[in-house]
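Hi support team,

I've been running sequence recovery on a batch of backbones for a student project. Most finish fine, but this one hangs at about 90% for roughly twenty minutes before it completes. I'm not sure whether the input is malformed or the queue is just slow. I've pasted the C-alpha cells below so you can try to reproduce it. Let me know if you need the job ID as well.

Thanks,
M.K.
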C-alpha cells in the first residue's frame, strides 16, 4: 500500500503531537507521510525528510514532506501567518492521493478563524473544501467507531433550520452515498440502514410532527422499492442500545446532535470522521485543535491512530472486491 498522507492541520493545536504519536504506534503497520513544517514538530522529535511519499516506506524516523510556513509554532496560539501553509498541505495531500502516490488522506484538525484571517478561507470546514477540490457537489459526513456508524443528514446548522433543510432529494443523496460507501469502503455487500425520525417518537403518527409522514417515510419507501435494506423512520431514543445496533450497519440521523451524542457516548476517544462520496479516502480524528493542552505532552492520539487505521482499511477495500485483507472486516462491528 502507498503511504497515507497526513495534512498537518493547525500548527498551534495538537495536530503535530498526535501525528508523531500515531506514527510511533502504527510504525510497521500503517505507512504514512506528514505534510507540514518540521520546525512545528514537538521538541526532540526524530524526523526524516523525504522527497516523495514512496521514500516514507523505508524511513527510519518520522517521515516528512517538508515545507516552510514562515513562522514558528506557539502552542495554543494560532497565527494567521500559517494559514496558507495549512491550506496548501490539504490541497497537496489531495493531489498525492489523486495521482496514486498516497493511498488515502488523513487530516489533522484545522482552526477556521485563523484560516479566514490569514488566507480568506472560503469554506465552512474541511469537508466542503475537500468536496470543492474533488469537484463533488454532494458529500456526506460519517462518524465511525467499532460499535457504531452514524451519518447526520444535516450538519452544522441551527436546530430551528433543520426541518426546512431536509428534503427528499437531500435525504436520498445522503442515504445512497452512505449505502455505496458501505459496500465499497467497508466491505459490506448488503448494507442495512436504520433511519431516525426527526421528531420525538418519530412523530407519534403525526401527533408530534408531520415530517415523518410527509417526507421521511415516502423517501424511504422509494428507496426500498429500489432494493435498499432500510428500516425507519425510527424513534431515535430506541436506536442505539446494543440489541438495536446489531440490526444495522449505519444509522442515518436527521441532525448533528442526534447522530453525534450516541457515538461520542459510546466511544469518545476512538471516533473517526470519514467523508463519504469523495473519489478518494479521507478520514480525520473526531476532535478539534485542543489549544488548551497543545504543547503539554498530554494529547491523546487514540482518535488519530483509529483514523489512520481506518483509512488503511478503506483504501484496501477499494483495491480489492473482497474487502480489507486479514483480521476483522470493518463491517463486523462490536455491539
Amino acid at each position: 500500500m502507498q503511504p497515507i498522507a497526513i495534512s498537518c492541520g493547525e500548527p498551534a493545536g495538537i495536530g503535530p503531537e498526535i501525528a508523531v504519536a500515531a506514527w510511533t504506534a502504527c510504525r510497521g503497520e500503517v505507512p504514512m507521510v506528514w505534510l507540514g513544517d518540521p520546525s512545528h514538530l514537538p521538541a526532540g522529535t526524530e524526523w526524516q525528510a523525504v522527497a516523495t511519499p514512496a521514500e516514507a516506506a523505508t524511513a527510519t524516523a518520522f517521515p516528512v514532506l517538508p515545507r516552510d510556513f514562515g513562522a514558528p509554532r506557539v502552542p495554543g496560539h494560532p497565527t494567521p501567518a500559517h494559514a496558507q501553509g495549512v491550506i496548501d498541505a490539504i490541497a497537496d495531500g489531495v493531489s498525492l492521493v489523486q495521482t496514486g502516490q498516497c493511498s488515502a488522506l488523513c487530516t489533522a484538525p484545522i482552526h477556521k478563524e485563523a484560516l479566514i484571517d490569514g488566507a480568506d478561507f472560503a469554506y465552512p470546514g474541511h469537508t466542503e473544501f475537500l468536496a470543492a477540490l474533488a469537484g463533488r457537489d454532494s458529500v456526506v459526513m460519517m462518524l465511525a467507531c467499532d460499535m457504531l456508524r452514524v451519518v447526520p443528514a444535516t450538519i452544522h446548522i441551527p436546530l430551528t433550520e433543520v426541518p426546512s433543510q431536509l428534503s427528499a432529494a437531500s435525504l436520498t443523496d445522503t442515504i445512497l452515498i452512505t449505502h455505496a460507501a458501505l459496500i465499497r469502503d467497508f466491505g459490506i455487500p448488503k448494507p442495512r440502514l436504520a433511519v431516525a425520525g426527526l421528531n420525538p417518537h418519530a412523530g407519534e403518527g403525526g401527533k408530534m410532527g408531520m415530517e415523518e409522514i410527509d417526507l421521511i417515510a415516502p423517501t424511504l419507501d422509494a428507496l426500498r422499492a429500489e432494493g435498499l435494506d432500510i428500516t425507519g423512520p425510527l424513534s431515535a431514543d430506541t436506536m442505539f442500545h446494543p440489541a438495536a445496533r446489531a440490526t444495522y450497519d449505519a444509522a442515518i440521523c436527521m441532525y448533528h446532535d442526534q447522530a453525534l451524542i450516541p457515538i461520542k457516548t459510546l466511544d469518545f476517544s476512538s471516533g473517526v470522521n470519514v467523508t463519504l462520496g469523495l473519489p478518494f479516502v479521507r478520514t480525520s480524528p473526531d476532535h478539534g485543535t485542543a489549544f488548551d493542552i497543545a504543547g503539554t505532552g498530554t494529547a491523546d492520539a487514540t482518535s488519530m491512530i483509529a483514523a489512520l487505521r481506518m483509512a488503511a482499511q478503506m483504501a484496501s477495500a477499494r483495491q480489492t472486491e473482497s474487502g480489507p485483507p486479514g483480521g476483522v472486516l470493518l463491517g463486523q462491528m462490536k455491539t
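--
Follow-up from support: It reproduced on our side and the slowdown came from queue contention, not your input. The radius of gyration is 20 Å. No action needed from you.
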